[in-house]
Amino acid sequence: MKNPYARLIGLIACALLFALNLTARNITLTAQVTNVHCNGDCTGAIHLVVTCGISPYNYDWNNDGSETPDNDSRDINGLCVGLYCVTVTDATGSTFST
Q: Among residues 37, 40, 78, 79, which is most buried (max CB within 10 A)?
């Protein structure tokens, strides 16, 4: 007969590993910016690279007001000269704002 304690210890170890993998880490953003080609054009773009945190991520850019639920994409384009800010929220509710 197999040792029932070995199975229990294995299950506990799996549960601990699972819990450790879900521990929230600080969200980190890197923005790759494409500048507007000519003054007055709206040819700019921002591509976000999100690391850490726990996916899926939710994005809320300031260029279109707030929505409920937020349904903005990670990247935005067709941008005119201006200031663009984003709030990224991960699956645990942790946020990072620029």
A: 79
E strand or H helix at 8: helix 4-21
Q: Copy the structure tokens of residue 25.
A: 């880490």
Q: Are 53 and 90 in contact (CB under 8 A)?
A: yes
pTM of the predicted model as reported, rounded to 2 decimal places:
0.68
Classify burial at 96, counting beta carbons within 10 Å of its beta carbon; exposed 0-12, middle 13-18, buried 19 or more: middle
Average pLDDT, the chain: 76
- The token pair that represents 91 in the structure block: 């699956």
Average pLDDT over every residue of 44-58: 90
Query: Under 8 Å CB-to-CB from 31, ≥6 apart: which residues?
Result: 46, 47, 48, 49, 98
CA distance 97 to 88: 6
